[in-house]
Amino acid sequence: MGRPLRALVTARLTVQTESTTSPERQIKECKSFCELRGWEVVGVAMDLAVSASAVPPWKRPELSRWLDDRAPDFDVIVFWRLDRFVRRVGDLDQMIKWAESHGSKGLVSATEPFDLTSPTGQATATMIATFAEMEARAAAERVASSRAHLLTSTRWGGSSPPFGYRTYAKDGARYLEISTETADVVREAARRVIGGESVNSICRDFEERGVPSPADTYQRNKSGKDFVWYPRTLKGILTSPTLLGWKTRSEDVPGKKYKRRVLVHDQEGRPIRVAEGVLDQEVFDLLQDALADSASPIGRRSSTPRTPLLNVIKCGGCGKNLQLHTTRKRRKDGTFRSTEKIRCLSRVASPACPGYVFLPDEEIVTPVLRMLRQAVGSTPVTRRVYVQQTSADGESGESSHGADKDHWQFVPLGKTFAERWQSMGISEIGEDLIHAGITVRCHPQGGGGHVPEIPDDFQKRLAKYLG
Questions:
Q1: Across the strands, what pairs with 41?
Q2: Is 168 helix (H, G, I), strand (E, B) or coil?
Q3: What is the DSSP letter of 321?
Q4: Cα–Cα distance between 414 and 285 in angstroms, integer?
Q5: In terms of DSSP H, where are the helices of 210-295?
Q6: Per-residue model confidence as pLDDT tens digits over 86-130
Q7: Tell me, what's the pLDDT at 361?
Q8: pLDDT tens-digit series, residues 129-171
Q9: Residues 356/436, Cβ–Cβ less than 8 Å
Q10: DSSP-assigned beta bridge partners for residue 12
């Protein structure tokens, strides 16, 4: 008689209300289902506050650990209902393919009559997932419709108001009005920028005077640390049309990771005013011209990262990423002189960082790569492969299930890390290091030099990525 199937019970819930099924009940019914079939429950993956529409199974905090490293430890995944597991047809299709490639594992609902190991069961599951996706889409459309209505009204529907404003209650809703305290800070900063002062120097002055930053103003400081004025934050405030009293929304910038503020228009194409402006139009226009004049004369920042080994090299003082910075100074003949340095992302003179600065090639790239080749260069590069063992008669089946059967195998690729890196560029080597979890704490030579931080399982981490 074969070994009993090993079951992984999974439960998920977005928001618990009186009408939802608690995760405890989901787990209890799944365990009872397994007990009736003689299956052994080897683990429970419970993910709370996770939307199945937005987060697929392989990205959920608990379930992803089982699907990744612990896949050989179970034979079937049991969930209360399919919509507790997936809500998108594409996600279900991916999970069926994953199950087939990882030992022909089963996906089973404890309350719905289908078995995904059969073609009929797969068709039924696809149909149920289709209805679940339609339901989720309808709910999303209702939410989007409500948000669209709120967006075009004069009400304030956000949380923290824009810097320079505060909210007040009226007829059961909230609206914006000028905050004298923070508006005065905005007006001072605008006046000084128009007068030719840099955003950086204004931020330093605000800190020295103890002017509360936006994070302090809106009481987001729950950690007890002191927030500082960042030039990027102040510039975002000064460039927002919200300062004119117009309603704005966030919009993705194509090819960028950040967003920008744009005007919201009514059905007739007119901008929507939600409050009196902190600045008038003339001052705002002068402010934008001054900010544009202070920007880089060579052009905007490239859309591709230019920092060598970005996310690998860390500041030895505060641990933040090091990044390439370029300064340009105008010569008397009208040309510009460019100087590149690698320094910490912390603002210059920030009390949290000693402000290390490095030359890109001779103090970072060359010594860091030499150090890492010496540390891990002789280690073989491997790829992770899932291996399903077969029974004595050469066929896989229930009798083949067991902790000593299915397993991960690390297959050598025939080259070492150093040999692999010989044909790769710096950015590709950086990707390898990121996937392997390798970082380097960078210090000046007088401060002890660079210190690599290499996890014990770095070889397996890269193998998972290459697999």
A1: 7
A2: strand
A3: B
A4: 63
A5: 214-217, 231-239, 281-294
A6: 888 788 888 988 988 898 899 999 998 767 766 777 677 667 667
A7: 92
A8: 677 667 667 766 666 555 555 555 667 766 678 899 988 888 7
A9: no
A10: 47
Instruction: Determine the pLDDT at residue 104.
Output: 85
**What percent of the chain is predicted at pLDDT more than 70?**
80
Beta partners for 174? 169
Instruction: State yes or no: pLDDT of 432 exceeds 90.
Output: yes
H-helix or E-strand spanning residue 90: helix 89-101
Q: Could you tell me how many residues make up the chain?
A: 467
Q: How far apart are CA 120 and CA 403, in angstroms?
A: 29
Q: What pLDDT score was predicted for residue 403?
A: 45
Instruction: Residue 340: name the closest of 364, 320, 317 by CA.
Output: 364
pLDDT bracket for residue 14 (50, 70, 90): confident
Cα dihedral angle (143, 148, 151, 157), rounded to 10 degrees?
-10
- Rounded CA-CA distance 312/305 in Å is 13
* Pairing outcome for strands 6-13 and 40-48: parallel
Q: Return d(Cα 115, Cα 112) in angstroms, integer.
A: 9
Q: For strand 380-387 and strand 248-252, is the pairing parallel, antiparallel, or unpaired?
A: unpaired
Question: pTM of the full predicted structure?
Answer: 0.59
Confidence at residue 301, expressed as pLDDT on a 0 to 100 scale: 46
Longest CA–CA span in the chain (Å) reads 90
| Gyration radius from the chain CA atoms | 29
Tally Cβ neighbours within 10 Å of residue 404.
8
User: In sequence order, which residues have a C-beta less than 8 Å from that of residue 159 and are 6 or more positions away?
Assistant: none
Write out pLDDT tens, residues 290-325: 888 776 444 444 444 578 999 999 998 888 899 888
Q: How far is CA 183 from CA 236, 241, 256, 273, in A?
A: 15, 14, 30, 17
Tokens 């704490």 sit on residue: 441
Measured CA distances, 15 to 49, 50, 136, 139, 205 (Å): 6, 8, 14, 14, 45
Q: What is the DSSP secondary-structure string of 372-428? A: HHHHHTTSEEEEEEEE----TTS--SGGG-STTTSEEEEEEEEEEHHHHHHTS-HHH
- The tens digit of pLDDT for each residue in 242-292 reads 899 888 777 777 766 667 777 777 767 778 888 899 999 999 999 998 888
CB 337 within 8 A of CB 331: yes
Tokens found for residue 75: 């034979």
Query: Parallel, antiparallel, or unpaired: how do β-strands 6-13 and 322-330 relate?
Result: unpaired
Class of residue 113 by CB neighbours under 10 A (exposed 0-12, middle 13-18, buried 19+): exposed
